[in-house]
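Task: complex structure prediction.
Instruction: return structure tokens for all chains below.
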Amino acid sequence: MCPRLLYNSADIMTASQIRFRRDLSQDPVTALALHRAPSGRLFVFAGEDSDLVVYEAKNGRHKGRFVSRVSVFIDQPIHGISVRHGQVLAWGFCHIAILAVESLTREDDGDGSVNGRPPAIARATAPDWIYHGAFSEAGPSVAVLATAHNEVIPLKYSPSTGEITLGAVIAPSRPMLYSAHLSWISDDTILVAGGTVFGHVVVWKCHLLEGGRWSTETLFNFEGHEGSIFGMDICTITLSDGSSVQMVASCSDDRTIRIWDITERKDKARSQPLQPNQVINTGFGGNDIERGDSVSDSSEEGTPIAAVMGHASRIWGVRFGPECGENALSVYSFGEDATTQRWRLQIDCDASAGEPNPSSKSLTGKMSHSKTFSLHNGKHLWSRAMLAEDKAVLIATGGTDSQICLIEEPALIDERSNSVGGSIVLDASDILKGLVSSKEIISRYDFLSHDHILVTTSYGKLLLGHLIESHTEPKWEQINVPEERQGEVKLCYVVKAIDPTAALLGTASGNIYHFSLSSKSITHVSSMLGKITDMICLSNKSRDGSRSASAEVLVFLHGKADSHYFSIDISTGGVRSQAQTGGLDPRFVPTAAGKVDDLLVIGSRHGWLSILDHKDDETYSPILDIATRSRDTITAILPLPLKSGSHHTSHYILVTSRDGKYRIYEIDRRPECVLLHLRHETSPPFGPMIAGAWFTQDTVPELVLYGFRSKDFVIWNETRREEVATIECGGAHRTFQLTCSKSIPGRYRFAFTKTSKLSISSSDQLRHEWVKSGIHGREIRSLSSNGRYIATGAEDTSIRIWDYQPAGEGAQADLRCVAAMKTHVTGLQKLVWLGDDYLFSSAGNEEFFVWRVRNLDSDYKGLAVVCEGVFTDKSADADLRIMDFDVCKSNNGDGIIVTMGFSNSVLRTYRYTSDSGRFELLIKGAYTGACLTQTRHLGIRNQLPVLFTASTDGHLALWRTEPDEGAQHKYVLEQVVPLHQNSIKSLDMMKSGEGYHVFTGGDDNSVGVTLLGQTSRGTGNASWTFVKRSIVRKAHAAAIAGVLLVRRGTELLGVSVSNDQRVKLWSIPGGEDGNIKFLRGGCIGVADAGDIAAVGGPESDAATVVFAGIGLEAWSLV
Amino acid sequence: MGKSSKDKRDAYYRLAKEQGWRARSAFKLLQLDEEFDLFSNVSRVVDLCAAPGSWSQVLSRVLIKGEKFGRSAWQDRDAKVRQQMLGVFPEAFTPEQKESIENTISLSGDDAAQHNEVEATTVAANRDVKIVSIDLQPISPLAGITTLRADITHPATVPLLLSALDPSYDPAAVAGTQAQHPVDLVLSDGAPDVTGLHDLDIYVQSQLLFAALNLALCVLKPGGKFVAKIFRGRNVDILYAQLKIFFEKVIVAKPRSSRASSVEAFIVCLNFRPPAGFHASLEEPLGVGQRLDMLVREREMQLPIVAEAAMQSERGTWDCSAVSTPATSHESGITEVEVYDETEGNNMGNGARWIAPFIACGDLSAFDSDASYQLPEDYVSLDPVQPPIAPPYKRALEIRAGLSKPTKV
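Output:
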């Protein structure tokens, strides 16, 4: 007895000593500020839930460097940050904090972590929600705050004592606002712009007088927006006629951005000051909707200078940027659609210039769209910051996806000229001034390297462009082509660089010419019968001993399935060897090719792949033809990087296609045959036209794909899941060429033909930087861990697999995306791993997929994932949700048992076999009509599962099986008991001795602990029963969407997470005696929590608990 | 989502159309009434944020026309039959019910999907009923109901409401913001268009709630009831604690017709009893400043809050009080465990907290708003009783649609 008791009390000791420690957080970024330190370093201040996090950006690395993190508020996200006078002013809801910049950015010399004590934080609480705050220009001792009721609150701060004193609330009227902006216009006067819930723009002045007195002056009340105003900004510019104009920008629920003139002119003809107590009509003007075209309404009073409709959904923010030409200003907007857009506001100055009294005429202008940055995932740009510097403007954006992007925009001189944004537009007449007739157009071209482009014209000229800086025009050199060759150059159909010093020209007459950069001349290489449609450079071998450098090229001819292989001396164009393919189906239209070892792989227009081997020296013959999963054109085939230290050639190929997907195949060479196995298949977030790909030359190679998304050309880093470049080019159907650095990210040139003109868009480096990388931009609904990897399924219909690296010595915990799959078309419901190599996913529309997951034997670190099984046994309308399911290996080794719980109360169990990808129905059942929320196997008996379910009615149910018609079985309800009042939103269970511990979380704020036991010990006919149920009714203040059981030594712990944004740790009694005990709670930044999982396994002491919803956090129990 | 697939996905959407309700939310009020008997001894009601008017419609049919709606209005007979067959919840049935269920089974479900025969019994209409409905959006007229188009957050709405309740109301009178003939029940089903920024949405929702409460403080009689929509998210327990100042009982209720996947719930406040000396003030509205938090703290000092629990009894009623010992065994075999949470943040900074008891209402045979239902093949999907209110971005959609149409020159 005695030792047992002691043992127990020791357990309690350990449980009470367990603490939570947050190791990683990927929460929505709700506030941002940029700060350039006197040292020249650029700091990004970010509000991530209640923490203020500082990063150093533009530090020469790809990613921002973490500098410091401090918890500023409790249970309250930061909604705004303003940095001025060496102080950081942060606010969220009614809370305010002031911290010294220095205390957040000061560092030790060596280890890079912030030195010393936690920074001192001055705090205060305002009476209302705060939308904006601004220090006075004079210094950090005075600031003002703007509230959600159009009030201004003066703030006094003493940096020495750290004391904040709030003054009395100042307001001319108290409409409810959705946004506000403050601007100090003198030492004692603040201009206030408020955007109301009902779409009004209210502009007033607040004078702070001696002795805490004040006065207000209402200037404008603009109507016109048809929805709430979510963002505002104020600016002053000087027009070309010398007049100064003050403007406010507003953006709204109605998808418009409007610019209003708030210049105070001497005669107040345009403003109508409102009486202090005058009742302003609220609500949206009832007739606005019917009025027709209010956007372009003519010179009525209160008409905006300009208005424009933009973004796919609501617009959350608007900021004035720097001037971009005479009387022109750039304006940036930030939307729910997760894009940042740049607009050009051109103010029409002439209209008022001639007038004797300029104020009598309203200012007009025009807004036009100039660029869209889609750098974030999912929805919502919640935060933005701008820093205008001499040479560039820096824009930081933060979103629901927890990502922080920093865009660097070079000073825009005048957008109408050709040279902005590293893009130049050329046509033949630009290039050959006076040399050619006006009808001569640029025909074909290719980049030799970043420095040279070779161009042919419709009149048979050959031009070499020396590309210098990205903004300046190339220097052109006409290559001397002998007269008899000019006709051939005119017929040139393909220009293909085979080296930075050489290119091949293929003509419609079947001739190949070699161009050498050193001799600047062309020589004939070979002739064949037919029109050359394309040439693929298979390899480029540098000088090898005595042999000079050579390139292997495959030449496609019009209308012919077979193609010609050449090995060509790069410097002379001499043919080393040549061969022809033979034996391909005559319908085969080759479009892409690659060479792996001595095998040729050719892809066709209709999605076929053919592997060809040397039959003899002159012929390649197919040894394998397969129809890929694509019926569309194969655009590129390239080998995967080798595994370092391996001497074999790669046995994987990557294939891109016009069906919007890329695939990785394993070439399985057997003595008697060769096989191709599909190992990976997914679509990047652009397309459907993927034009090609390459691997970077980093130690860990990264995959970069390029292609088209509607009118844009996109370069996409699949490994980092970042958009490297977006170039508006008009769409996919055009001639284009790309040259890209494989070692410097963002260094590329892209040439394309649009309306017979050649455009070259160039960049030397990334124009934007990911200060912090992100996750899904929508709610994560399901999490599953196999110990090694975490899988997340989200409302954005995508699944991602992550590699979690725990915090180590001096290193932050890190989450790296290793795969992303977007095959579901509805939001994910549930994800479950089975072992390390199978992942199952369910969603609405009865979607259920089986994913086979493998590691690749390559330096490329992406995980290979392929959808192996698709559930097809759907109901007539296929409109049910598969709420939950469980999977286990069949105990006779024959397939996998899958039991699904549907939203219409139906249960179905299938046997899935991976060879055929087939689902065979084993058991059917139905509950009362209530939606089934949880479905679990308790075990397998006679090859059939013993089932345990929970549902929206708060009951737990046990099921057994009975034979039904034919070979099928049916589920029979064995026992059903109430536990929760309504929906059981989460459930976890763990085997404990002979029984199971079941931990549940309900919509009713409760957590339940249920003990399941077996009534008889016989192995064959044991029957399960509910031994004990207990419930904590007020476990949380809101619905509990995630519960987890973890074992800690001999103890069982429960973790729960709720919509109240609390995490709670519970001690679960080991047996029938004792009750669940509350151990500890903590606040979490993950809103709308959807699920919990343990990385490192729930039975391991080192388990890390991962929470996901809107945001993701990893906590360890220490 | 097509109309008919929405009919299957959302039973209450379909029922609302079949039974002539303007919106599915009518069932939320009916189920709240079933649980809390909201309408008994009630003749004067204010309905805030009423558009499109489904709650007012319930008030009109129940209080003016004297109709009665029982469970049959939202009962899933198939579910009941299945519950019976499976032997689930046997305690939920009286012998008579069992008999009627057996009869239904013997009818072999030929009209099993015809749920629309509402058993509305009519009792004598009440002549003293006064119902005032307010919304920013126009509300189509309803028999016997005064509708006002006004902003409940605007101070000018108070005199408007008072004169609508009482034609002899004189705004210049001393008690200018108090109703002379107070009302028995104040309802608010208002919610903002959510932004997705959770705490901002919760704040704006709480501003609507406080605006409603502010009006209620002006018009509600002692002992009156207040029911409002609430978002169950972060810091909602602070709101519960603040409502508890004014009412004896504060319960958070979730009708079966409100989806479990939604953060929506209803706060049911019973027995209005404002603190002594408290007066509703337009100059110092609730919802801003620290006034409420100070009241909560004052109250806390006077009577330390004892964890209070109202438990759902076997019959599903809410009034079965739990003994607040750490663990109690009930007939149902569930051990009730009380815990005390001293998490950081509970007693710091943001305000005092209290978790109101939770009640799921509408009995278990009610249609499940999270479940999908099979409809007969010949089922004809009905049009909504009232078209949805035009969103502010309606025109943006129209303009975009106009742009994408090919225009012939």
